[in-house]
């Protein structure tokens, strides 16, 4: 494996590859004791081989500058016995593809392909199952193919495997293995000092490692000498403090973010008092954060709220500070802009609806296709209404000739003896419709002691795709006969199923009667530039002009004087219908500039209200179920709903970061989870939701509530680099399932879950319920050893800013601090003589990007946190970042060189 890696990196130079491989084993013999994870030896050898070859190449480049270039190149060409094969051009990219893999996948590839192990043998080395190795290898091949494709090399998975097989067949000779063993033993013992080119390569490489570690120490020592009388000020930073004591076993598995979600109307005094009680209980058992969702819409009207509202908010903020709870406002929902401007709502296309003209107005003509059978429920068949199917317990459905709205009878749906019914009970019928038309379905209903959240009217298209669904029951406990009406769009369906009743268990009685289905025209019309109303002649050969030939009004067209439209004419009318398909406010279309203007204005007000938040949670959910409709506005031009959602999420991140760069964003997984909504078609989305996740940066924390596919969902977002918080309603079964899923994820080497969010069932908070399991949830997680301690965002000692500010001429270096610390960036913005190093245990590439975006790249110094860590991690953070070339070079060497020149001994 080592020989093959070196050969690929050196472009097929067999002699230099042998020298490099022997050097790797010399380094391995001397440094084997520093490898903490014995299962990662193969991966360590792969990385060392790459580093050794890179060092050899840099040395060769330096030599070539001192020699005549033409002669040197000619000599190289004569000494390279390179055999051109069908794989020429692949070798130079393959190591990069392997290096781009995450740890578990890279280890599996190295062992299986480069070491030639079977899946079972690799599983024994890695301490996992054979199936896990097979899965990692399969996914790794696909990831490598993607890397190679970006480099212009297109290979199938089979071709890539064939290449590995061909390389593995070129096994190292016995003589070479013996030479490696001898070189390694000589380098380890110091006897003979491992003769040959390999020894020279190994010695030079070890020197390079040494000097990489001592650079920062040299600079700091130079500063101490140069600063003379200000040595006392520098001493607080250099020498560095002793390495911290190792964290307790399992500390990396603790939930550091332990949050509670509260939905309520902040302007209501009773709600605020209930919230304060919940906060006190939460803090007492160790929760450290509160995601505060304003269900009353007050966040959208902060410019119109009275002084009492703001005093309530301040009361909550003060109490949170006393309890050590971080407040995270939950804002930026998909419906917010619709509330501000109804014409920003998502709308569904209605095409070629037939209209008839009479008495200088045009109204919809009847759709002869859309006809319900036995709409009055009067005709019976074996005790059941003819043409209607009944679903649920038969004893719970009866015709009632005494209690009725019209005709001879109604249908009574009841729970036996008033107890809770065992099944859902519904009345259903399939009916023909015309594609892309607007319809209204209504029913007369009466109740007695009725309770059931999932009841009402449901309209399903092909594949049981919801075209309309009452998410909250319109039927109240005790109501007289009343008409319940809903609208739906048939989209591309030629038949739909209409069902009425309860989709879940219920109590009491519900009477249904006189069901009606009819086509409607120009109803709930959404008007904006990208959504015109078009009117054509019935033969579609002539189009009319709005304003001159017709005026759009509710459910009709008014024909003005001078119009070309005459009485008796037949028209085809097309428009866009407001997407009221859940009975709640539809989401707004993010294709409109006003959408972003509204969000920016409101987000700035929320930012001012929570003027010092450590984080900012965003919810892209109308109500609680996420987007149900999107991507119908032609102005967007998106190929599918996934692309639309991705762009909206990306713009939302950018908007919030511009308002406050320190925000830590939290997104719900629902709309972008390939094991949830984003697996394909979803509700009334225009096109597949696949790819919606591409709009979220890895820095964003995912609030994961995928209860159906916990492990798969957690793994997906972990592999994308997201940190995650699992969401539970506090039921013991839910908590156990989540903790089992987290452990399964960690068994694959993926640690991304950093916390837990307790959220009550939607709708229960307004009743003062939903937090019964708050303490039990904490106890259950503590019993599994996952409950962390302390605040979510610990405070930084004041000396961080005091010393540099006191000695402005002294350069200070700040080490061992997480870049995402909320107090760090403001300190660097105010104290210009403070510098920071890439500290391996705590830095990461996204942290670098965030720091550079806020403070620039001139004050970041390359370092490996020596002697606590090796330089490899620090190099990786810099290499994998997306910084501009100039910024990366500043961090790598220019900043140190500049500071060394600036420091003078006096």
Tell me what the structure shows.
The protein is of the alpha/beta class and 906 residues long. Helices cover 38% and strands 18% of the residues. Helix 13 links the parallel strand 1 and strand 2. The radius of gyration is 34 Å and the shape is globular.
Strand order of the largest sheet: 1-2-3-22-24-26-27-28
Determine the strand fraction and express it as a percent band.
15-25%
| Structural Rg | 34 Å
Helical stretch count? 25
Spans of at least 5 consecutive residues whose pLDDT stays below 50 are: 68-88, 168-195, 210-249, 619-625, 818-822
What overall geometry do the principal axes of the alpha carbons give?
globular
Describe the largest sheet: 8 strands, parallel, barrel
Mean pLDDT: 77
* Total count of strands: 31
| Helix residue percentage | 25-40%
Separation of the first and last Cα atoms: 55 Å
- Kindly name the structural category: alpha/beta
Topology:
Blueprint: H1 2-9, H2 14-31, H3 41-66, H4 69-79, H5 91-99, H6 103-114, H7 119-126, H8 130-150, H9 157-169, H10 174-189, H11 197-227, H12 231-235, E1 257-264, H13 269-284, E2 289-294, H14 307-323, E3 326-331, H15 336-340, E4 347-358, E5 361-364, E6 380-381, E7 384-385, E8 389-391, E9 397-400, E10 410-414, E11 425-432, E12 438-451, E13 455-460, E14 466-469, E15 482-489, E16 495-502, E17 507-519, E18 534-537, E19 551-553, E20 556-558, E21 570-578, H16 593-609, E22 616-618, E23 629-630, H17 641-659, E24 665-668, E25 684-685, E26 701-704, H18 710-719, E27 724-728, H19 732-747, E28 753-758, H20 774-783, H21 799-806, E29 812-814, H22 824-830, E30 834-837, H23 845-855, E31 860-861, H24 871-879, H25 885-902
Parallel strand pairs: 1-2, 1-28, 2-3, 3-22, 22-24, 23-25, 24-26, 26-27, 27-28, 29-30, 30-31
Antiparallel strand pairs: 4-5, 4-21, 5-20, 6-7, 8-11, 9-10, 10-17, 11-16, 12-15, 12-17, 13-14, 13-16, 18-21, 19-20
Helix pairs in contact: 1-2, 1-3, 1-5, 2-3, 2-10, 2-11, 3-11, 5-8, 6-7, 6-8, 7-8, 13-14, 18-19, 19-20
